[in-house]
Design goal:
The chain has 305 residues and is of the alpha+beta class. It has seven helices and 18 strands. The chain has three domains: 87 residues, Pseudouridine synthase (2-Layer Sandwich); 131 residues, Pseudouridine synthase (2-Layer Sandwich); 67 residues, PUA domain (Archaeosine Trna-guanine Transglycosylase, Chain: A, domain 4, Roll). The strands form four sheets. Strands 1, 2, 3, 4, 7, 10, 11, 12 and 13 form a nine-stranded mixed β-sheet that branches.
């Protein structure tokens, strides 16, 4: 039987929702246990990691940073905060140098608070914001803290009011909100013109594949799947060396840690997850050290095969 556990990194086309991709993968792989690692707006293209089988249990342990390249259009505001929405207002944009524009972008670097677009999947009293918007309900969204690790001005087209950017940010960041808010700071309007995600959750576009490519090569579809353990390289590793330890682990009991072994490794931290493997490098799950650093307590245990 094919091993269908792991991650598929889809290069999503424009117009396709993240859920559409999940449905197509379920059909292609004949499995129901499929989930994406975070919604990508329909008009946004690029990297969409999708978890298959038991990999769905490890999504929370993936690196959470995401990287995009995109364009912001000044002079236009829309109901969706991107170019595809109904236009609310149009206004001239200022004449500004690359250097001065880059200084304005400092407002969005580091930890910032932003208000998500009203056409978004944010929950408001148990309902998605976009659902309330479609019903023309009046509501406000609270600002959310996000982190912008990198924001690079790649090009400024003064004539057409188009800004090319590269941005590395935390999960939950809305680039549409940055486009909207930058327009306000520049005393004009702003919306997102186009956006492509080039990296997400430790995966990048070099790992990605079109769903159409998988459909064309159905006989070898399992070859497109990246093993779960390969997605956890950023997490410290503990090797269980004997059957007693493995038995304790797989029955949900704490495993005693050799202090000497622990001191040899500076990477263990009781606040951080540790991936547990056996000598064959099979993934057994995720655990956490107790505060005394004498035991590792199971948090996620894969069933023995």
């Amino acid at each position: 039987m094919e091993n269908k556990d792991g991650f598929l990194v889809i290069n999503k086309d424009k117009g396709c929702t993240s859920h559409d991709c999940v449905k197509q993968i379920r059909k292609l792989l004949h499995t129901k246990k499929v989930g994406h690692t975070g919604t990508l707006d329909p008009e946004v293209t690029g990297t969409l990691p999708i978890a298959i089988g038991t990999a769905t249990r490890f999504i929370q342990y993936l690196p959470q940073g995401k990287t995009y390249i995109g364009q912001i259009k000044l002079g236009i505001s829309t109901k969706t905060d991107d170019i595809h929405g109904e236009i609310i207002n149009q206004k001239d944009w200022p004449k500004i140098s690359d250097e001065k524009l880059d200084q304005y972008l400092n407002n969005f670097r580091g930890k910032i608070k932003q208000i998500p677009p009203k056409i978004s999947s944010v929950h408001v009293n148990g309902e998605r914001a976009y659902q309330k918007s479609f019903k023309n309900e009046n509501f406000e969204l609270a600002p959310r803290e996000v982190k912008i690790d990198e924001l690079i001005l790649m090009k400024w087209d003064q004539m057409n009011g188009i800004i090319d950017i590269k941005i590395k940010c935390s999960s939950g960041t809305y680039i549409r909100s940055i486009a909207r808010d930058l327009g306000k700071i520049l005393s004009t309007e702003g919306c997102l013109l186009q956006l492509k995600r080039i990296a997400a959750c430790g995966f990048n576009e070099r790992n990605s594949v079109k769903i159409s490519d998988i459909e064309k090569d159905k006989e070898n579809k399992a070859n497109f799947i990246i093993p779960t353990i390969s997605a956890l390289d950023h997490i410290s590793t503990l090797v269980l060396s004997n059957e007693e330890e493995i038995n304790f682990w797989q029955t949900g009991r704490a495993v005693k840690i050799d202090i000497i072994y622990l001191k040899k490794s500076n990477s263990f931290d009781y606040k951080k997850p540790i991936k547990v493997i056996n000598k064959k490098k099979d993934l057994l799950g995720i655990g956490f050290l107790n505060q005394e650093q004498t035991n590792i307590n199971p948090k996620l245990v894969l069933n023995a095969r």
